[in-house]
Design goal:
The chain has 160 residues and is α+β, with helices and mostly antiparallel strands. It is 62% helix and 11% strand. The protein contains 4 helices and 5 strands; from the N terminus they run αββββααβα.
């Protein structure tokens, strides 16, 4: 049981770190033609990330930014609640609060990355018609899977 809880804790920390990286870094769409990439915050050309996004005024991008920040917040809250429940909860109880908070994180990731996929992942609005997905986009989908698995495991596990 201790090994399982430690494993879940490590995966949860890895998920939080990957969420931070995928939200902060500007490599969601990468151009195939030039050395350029687009993220949630900036347009990077070469090693220069000073360019503002041409579509930064759009509500869809602001929604993606908001949902990704909310996912980080709920993931950190879930981690803190899990540690708190680990030391204060009576034996035999389930980690309902940790699991529910992590599933809210999962929902925020799903909404944010789905909006980004619908509006920007094709490359039409990012000004790079020949492009592919960057590592931040892929990391976000990995966090989507991990947060769902962790949330379900928290709901199923009992403290022994």
């Amino acid at each position: 049981m201790l090994v399982l809880l430690a494993g879940i804790f490590v995966v949860h920390i890895a998920t939080v770190i990957m969420l931070f990286v995928s939200t902060i870094a500007n490599v969601w769409v990468v151009s195939d033609v030039a050395k350029a990439s687009v993220g949630l915050w900036k347009n990077c050309t070469g090693s220069n990330c000073d360019g503002a996004l041409a579509y930064s005024h759009e509500d869809a991008l602001k929604a993606v930014q908001a949902f990704m920040i909310l996912s980080i917040i709920f993931s950190v809250i879930s981690l803190v609640v899990f540690v708190f429940q680990l030391f204060t909860m009576e034996k035999g109880n389930r980690f309902f609060l940790s699991g529910a908070t992590m599933l809210v994180c999962w929902l925020c990731i799903m909404v944010g990355v789905s909006i980004y996929t619908h509006h920007y992942a094709g490359g039409q609005q990012t000004l790079y018609n020949q492009s592919h997905h960057g590592y931040c986009f892929i990391l976000t989908w990995i966090c989507f899977c991990f947060s769902f698995i962790i949330g379900i495991l928290y709901l199923v596990l009992r403290k022994k």
